[in-house]
Every structure is written in C-alpha cells, then in structure tokens.
TrEMBL record:
Part of the ABC transporter complex HmuTUV involved in hemin import. Responsible for energy coupling to the transport system. It comes from the Bacteria. Belongs to the ABC transporter superfamily. The lineage of its organism: Bacteria, Pseudomonadati, Pseudomonadota, Alphaproteobacteria, Hyphomicrobiales. Gene3D superfamilies: P-loop containing nucleotide triphosphate hydrolases. This is ABC transporter ATP-binding protein.
C-alpha cells in the first residue's frame, strides 16, 4: 500500500479558512499524533485525510490516486476513520454497530466482529443499545467498528477523550503498537501521552501546519509553547517525559527528557 499524502490543502467554509496550504506525507507504517490548541484545524485535517471533507484547493492522494476517486467500499477497507462525534441513525446494539462497521469495509466476519468487541472491552455490553451507553463506552464502540475491518490506515479523532485512565492508557498503547505495522494517525489533546507513545508529532496552529517532526525532536521545540500560548517546563520523570504548563510563553523552560517508555516498552531512564 502506498502512503497517504495531503498536498497543499486549503479548506474554507463560510468565508473562514479552516486549513491553509497544508502538506503532509504519511508513510505506510508509523504512529503520528496531530496536536494543537482548540480550533487549530486538527479535526479538519483528519477529515480531509479521511475523505470526509473536500478541500477547497489542493489534493489528497491515497497511493497514486486522488482519494476522491477511490470507490467508497475500497476506501472503507483501506482507511478507517473514527470521528470525534458520531450518532447512528438507528438505536442499534453494540454487536449490530460493529457489524455495520465491518460491512462498510467488505464481507462481514463473525470472528472479526467478536475480536473487535473483545479487544475493546465490550463483551458485557454487546446487547446494549447505543442510547444506553456512556460516553466512554460509545468511544470504544466507535473504535471497535473501525478496528473490526483492520484497515491499513487508521485515522482517529480524539478517541481517548472520554475514556477513563485505564482504558485511555490501553488505547494509546494499542494505537502506538499498531503504528509499528500499520499507519495510525491520531488527534490528541494529551500531549504527555502523545510525546511518550507516538513516533511523530504534527503541530497545527490557526489552520497552519507549524511543525512536523519526530517526537524526540519536537519535545524541546519552543514552537509548542507558542502554539499553545503557555511556557512548558520539560520534566524528566521515571515514567517518561512530561510537559507542565507553567505560565506565560516567554518564560524559559527547563529541559532534559528521558527516553519514551511507551514506544519500545523499555524501562525509562532515571530522572536527571
Ligand atoms: N463548517 C464550518 N464553518 C465555519 N467554520 C468552521 C466550520 N467547521 C469548523 N470551523 C472552524 O474551523 C476551526 C477549526 O476547527 P477544527 O474542528 O478543525 O479544530 P480542532 O483543532 O479540531 O479543534 P478542537 O481541539 O477544539 O477539537 C475552528 O475555529 C472551527 O470553529
């Protein structure tokens, strides 16, 4: 499978520029976190990459074809998209929703449905209807709907936002691990998890791509402070690196992160 590429993509709606001249080339494998402040254009970029939003100008390529020219069924098989917000037309059960997700990507398989329900901790909820699920349970159903297809490309918009800490950790570790064999692009607000677990970070601010770099390199980059409008103190802890928002962006931050434990499962270095 060839990579996913956004080439000079601009999105305008009602006179507003949501995304300006953004180019991004994504490889066949890897874990990529898209970060940035509220309204930066993260969801817009993800929707463009998923073919859910048509760019005003520029193109998105899936392999050597424009994404818009890829038939819906094939797109569903190659590219899994987990939206930030979703509400099904019918109040279906968890099993039926996951089956629906599988049908979008090709022939439904009972094994794939069961595996997705199990791996997202939904076994006890499989007969429960959407309207009777909590926010976090719904988020796990959305992921199961996409993961049941096992697409080579996963695009997920804040999939851990409403999850409790145990499920969020498990989710982020699963997504990072998935990036070793497939492409996994995730919009995230949790910078600490993004920097600890993801290989590459794409930073957006006010509709522009500000930085696109390996997590190790971007962690020290002051463009992060400028984009979020705070001064980060870079902390080294036994659990990995942490960004602590400490005040005005002009304040000088201290430094020295240890290794990233989530990425390779290695023990983190001790604090320095
Ligand atoms: N249909 C639309 N018409 C006009 N403006 C829009 C439209 N959709 C989104 N916007 C605006 O575009 C900007 C980018 O929105 P987007 O949802 O991509 O941001 P985001 O980085 O994902 O934000 P958040 O972190 O708050 O989820 C926001 O200011 C939003 O209000």
């Amino acid at each position: 499978m060839s990579p996913l590429v956004a080439d000079d993509v601009t999105v305008e709606r009602r006179g507003a520029r949501l995304l300006a001249g953004t180019s991004l080339a994504l490889p066949n494998t890897g874990s990529v976190a898209i970060v940035g402040p509220n309204g930066a254009g993260k969801s817009t970029l993800l929707r463009v990459l998923a073919g859910q939003t048509a760019p005003t100008s520029g193109t998105v390529l899936l392999g050597d074809r424009p994404l818009a020219a890829v038939p819906a069924r094939e797109r569903g098989r190659l590219l899994g998209y987990v939206p930030q917000h979703f509400s099904p037309h019918w109040d279906l059960s968890v099993t039926d929703l996951v089956r629906l997700g599988v049908e979008r990507g090709g022939a439904p398989s009972i094994t794939a449905i069961d595996a997705a329900i199990e791996s997202n901790d939904l076994v006890t909820l499989r007969r429960r209807r959407w309207s009777a699920l909590s926010g976090g349970e719904r988020a796990r159903v959305l992921l199961a709907m996409v993961l049941a297809v096992d697409p080579p490309i996963l695009l997920a918009d804040e999939p851990g936002a409403s999850l409790d800490i145990r499920h969020r950790m498990a989710l982020v570790e699963m997504l990072a691990a998935r990036g070793r064999e497939r492409l996994c692009v995730v919009v995230m607000h949790d910078l600490d998890l993004a920097f600890r677990c993801f290989e590459r970070i794409v930073l957006l601010d006010r509709g522009r791509l500000v930085a696109d770099a390996p997590a190790d390199a971007l962690f020290e980059d002051r463009r992060l402070d400028a984009a979020f409008g705070v001064a980060f103190v870079r902390l080294a802890t036994e659990h990995g690196r942490l960004l602590q928002a400490a005040g005005a962006p002009t304040r000088k931050a201290t430094t020295s992160p240890p290794s990233a434990p989530c990425r390779d499962g290695a023990e983190p270095e001790s604090s320095r």
